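seq:
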Amino acid sequence: MPRWVERMKPGHWYQISGDHPDLDLSPTPAGTRYLNDNDPANDIKINPPKGTKERLRRWLGRRPHAPWQGRCGFPSITEGWNGGAFASRFGNSGSMIVFGGGHNDYFGSDVHAFDLSTRQWSRISDGYVSGGADEYGTGAVYPHAVYPDGSPLPPHTYGYVQYDSIGNDYLLLKGQLELGANVKATPISHMFNLDSLKWRRGPKHPAAILSSGGWTTWDASRRILWGHSGDNGNGFIGFTPDGDNGDGTFGSWTTHYPKKIQAADHNTMAIDPVRDIIVVIVSAASALYALDPSAPDREMVLLSSSGEQPKLSEYAALEYAPNLDRFVYFSAKNGAQLYTITAPAGSSLAQLTHGAWIWKSIINTDNRLDPIAHAGANSKYAHNREHTFGRFRVATYGTFDVAVLVRHIDTPVYAMKLN
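struct:
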């Protein structure tokens, strides 16, 4: 467990990295303080200046150009509709993993980690950085959804990413054949192994459409990454990362089921491994629904809620906290507020779908930090204030559950002890 966890009071947000962290922590070492410190475009070994104009640009202190920068550059790794995952086995106390680009925004396939023990950012994979300008974006089509180095073309990851602690894999359910103006999504999954720091890809599904706005959860007991497409997709499906297919692909798909809900964009879901139930936040209805992972062909069931439920939002995050034995809901629209959701009594699906799920705000009345407002005021880049996706996660250390939040490329990482 990171030593700083012991200094935290439950229900309070803290800055744990950057120039001025809380909890009497020392500043993170220079070069590791912010995600932006590891932008591959700033690495002269990877991206040396080419031509007098670029050398002058850098001499003037402007952001370097890179062939993979896209329209918006590196800030899109957080702002371009991208999530993240907590990898419990990467680093002594686990790490937040960040990857993504999408459409015209960013074409870099670099992978980054925030180590919760050292409180430092690092770039753990450079991605494809040796291509010319014509190998990125519009017109650069890759039929297997990977660059020549094997890394995937970075999509908007939305809620499509999760983590498998057994395989120590960062999991991405979808792929891209092309980025840029003619962006093309494809049902090819990708796995980044955090031991070897190498990518693998799955086989292409013949019928699934996994494009914008989808959401997933990792079912560790069945070893299935369950995923639901967004509005313009066509289904609910699972992918298991296990097995070498002998043709350069790994893993396999489950049965492809019809969509469970039509208003599907930017919802979120999580599994309760104790009760074996998947709970879904449906933002358009501002309601909770349940899925039975043991019977994925069944329809979703509307759940009853009571207590302090806020209006439920797109781009939010839902996690299961094992020590609390509750779900945890976070939306940037609610600022510092954090809510737990307690299951009704009983363990059968009938009991869980007929009783009321109880919402409760767990922010302490003495809390003084709003991470959404703080990050927004301190970032120099344009940002999507409402976007969270998987950049909010729960890390568990013994009897403690800790919420971790990554906001922008030039702002601290934030944390809250939940119990």
